[in-house]
Every structure is written in C-alpha cells, then in structure tokens.
Amino acid sequence: MEQLSSTTLQYFLERFGHLSGAILQSALFTSGVSGGPGSMLLEFAARDSQRPTTSPQGAISKLRIRIEESLEFNLHEPGGGAYTTIKHPIVGMFLQDKFFLNFDPVNSKDWTIEEWDKDQMRNSVFYVAGARISWEIED
Asked: How far apart are CA 45 and CA 34, in angstroms?
C-alpha cells in the first residue's frame, strides 16, 4: 500500500478525480488489541485516471483506503444501504497530526468561512481521519 503524505495527497485526489462518482462498496472497522485505536478499510469502485478506458473494466478500479493510528470517523450512509455514491469531490487535508478525508464536504462546512478546520471536517456525515492513511488499487 502507498502511504498518503502531505506531498502525495494532491496526486491521490487528482488521480481518482477527488472520488466524485466513486461507489463505496464496503467499510470495515477493526477494533484494536486491548482497546487500542483500531483501523478502518474502505473499498470503492473509483475512476482511475491512470487506467486505460479500453481495459475490460474501463477506467474503474477497486480502490482500498486504510486508515490507522489515532483513527476517528463518522459514517452515515443515506438510506442505511451499501453502495453509497460519492456525489461531490472529496476534501483531503492534513490538520495538525492527522490526515482528514471528508466524503461529504458540501453539507459539512460553513461556506462563509474560507478555510477548513477540524470541527468543520468532523461535522461531515462521512469522514475519516488518522495519523496514517494508505491506499492501493486492485485490477
């Protein structure tokens, strides 16, 4: 898996079109040993700009995102079902000691304020944060 860093975050967002139109296929939370922080694995069907559209699946790849260390998240799927479609480009940021990925930025921010802060990220019905986020694709 490739580690997300402050220098690779923009590449990741651009490669997958800020995940706009991606479909969440699964979200697996694993609790940590002895009450430790645990981890989360998100799987998406996402458009990959580096995958040729002529391949058998088109430009769609299975994208896995693993969130670890100091994990926090909020996940509310509308209608309570799986296969939630990400309708708007996500926002990714490194704030103090954590990476935040906000999958519902349109509905979680006071748009009279330009800058994002932790509280606005945490207002999202679907966000993840952790000290370490990594990703991989499966063909």
From this structure: 33
**Amino acid letter, 114:** E
User: Residue written as tokens 């930025």?
Assistant: 105
Give burial (CB, 10 Å; 0-12/13-18/19+) of 68.
middle
Give 70's contacts (C-beta < 8 A, 6+ positions apart): 37, 97, 98, 129, 130, 131
| Helix runs in 5-137, H state only | 9-15, 118-122
Q: Give me the mean pLDDT over the 84-104 stretch.
A: 89
Report yes or no on whether pTM surpasses 0.90: no
How do residues 26-56 score in pLDDT, each as one tens digit? 999 998 766 667 899 999 999 998 877 676 6
Residue in 95, 88, 132, 102 with CA at minimum distance from that of residue 117: 95
Residue 56 CB coordination number (10 Å): 5
Query: Is residue 117 predicted with pLDDT exceeding 90?
Result: no
Query: pLDDT at residue 95 above 80?
Result: yes
Structure tokens at 121: 């990220």
Structure tokens at 24: 């969440």
Assess contact for 27 and 75: CB atoms under 8 A. Answer: yes
